[in-house]
Amino acid sequence: MGCCVSTSSRSTCSSRRNGDSVLPSCFEIGFSAQKRTRRTFSDNVISLKHLQSVPNRIFMNGRSRTSCIFTQQGRKGINQDAMIVWEDFMSEDMTFCGVFDGHGPHGHLVARKVRDALPIKLLSFLQSCESKQTGSGKACFKGNLKPDEEDPEKDCSAEDKLNSVWQEAFLKAYKVMDKDLKSHPNLDCFCSGSTAVTLVKQGSNLFVANVGDSRAIMGSKDNNDSMVAIQLTVDLKPDLPKEAERINRCKGRVFALQDEPEVCRVWLPFDDAPGLAMARAFGDFCLKEYGVISVPEFSHRFLTDKDQFIVIASDGVWDVLSNEEVVEIVSSAPSRSSAARILVDSAAREWKLKYPTSKMDDCAVVCLFLDGKMDAESDYDDQGFSSATIMSNHSGNPIESDDGQKSEPCLQRNFTVRSSDENETCSGLTADREGETPSAEDQNWLGLEGVTRVNSLVQLPRFSEERPNP
């Protein structure tokens, strides 16, 4: 479908403080020129079967040195959300975070598969780039690039190279991830898929890639030292003009059902199915010929001392809480290690208050604190968690395998997909995963309020022999 990449307008060119311009010929990803960097497991080739042995990687409810994560099952069946924080991702100053929201009958397996495999693919592309550059004998510069306050327009080559490497790595990783899902022998992704909001923090640099309608925001202090919310990603909905144009150009259809006029969905050209409530996703191969893509929107920004924390969450949180409310809840949490759990609890209460007849959506939250500090271990234990890599699952789901292949749970009806007979009776009673169209004035995309709450998919497509050729 072509390259769909956007870059943050806040990014600036950089040079050294003494006025000498940085003229690199390649990008140093991390550990090759850092003599004091501790060698980590990610220095080696990683396969899915080794993931349980990777240090500083958490994917269940718990905390790490700089973050806390929490997920809670909604009322639709098995928890289809997944999350991850991977510290020392490629070097000591690099952290990978992600939230993945599955949908469809196998959505939980797709989300877990992407959670496990996507970071490895990104790591592989970064290491390949590092190997080529260091092997060429060219000089490298450190990835912790900062803007020059004295002359921000001087020498753009450093940041341009930085953006180019990370942009290419994310695009390749997402492309290969979707290709692997399509050819997976044990996972049917034809009518199942997952969102993905992923980011890498390296020093003062933040790289973000996003598909779907999960969201990342940042809590930062303004000039008056008050906390404000900065949205880092756009909810990629079918009614966004550029998304709708692409889908229509590929013969897909974008329209809203009569009983939910605010919720635009993607439909096949020859059938009123599946009604996908997002314009980009991993999987969903029944719609890949008709405009739904897995190409992420990419952005890069420089972090400042005013930036406090980042929150990544699935739409179960954003459906009921605004960006400002989320920042307020996290910043006022009694301890940093409890912030993610408290945010999920707050979302659960709001679901009961705002949509008492709807089924609460799954919620997953990652809170990354940018100063690298967390609570003392004793404070964390008081919250009822275990430290290090947490292997408990508060959602009650069965213990999963590394890749979702060997211990695949029995797939019972989880209400993610409704049959056509149920549409009329259940359309007003189930929960939706929707976000508001971006405002051109303030670029602050808040969760939709006051709309019918249904599911990400309306129904499975019904293919027949009369199906027209695309």
Automatic annotation (TrEMBL):
Name this polypeptide is given: protein-serine/threonine phosphatase
Catalytic activity entry: O-phospho-L-seryl-[protein] + H2O = L-seryl-[protein] + phosphate; O-phospho-L-threonyl-[protein] + H2O = L-threonyl-[protein] + phosphate
EC numbers, comma separated: 3.1.3.16
PROSITE patterns: PPM_2
Organism of origin: Acacia crassicarpa
UniProt region (Disordered), positions on chain: 421-447
Similarity remark: Belongs to the PP2C family.
Keyword tags: Hydrolase, Magnesium, Manganese, Metal-binding, Protein phosphatase
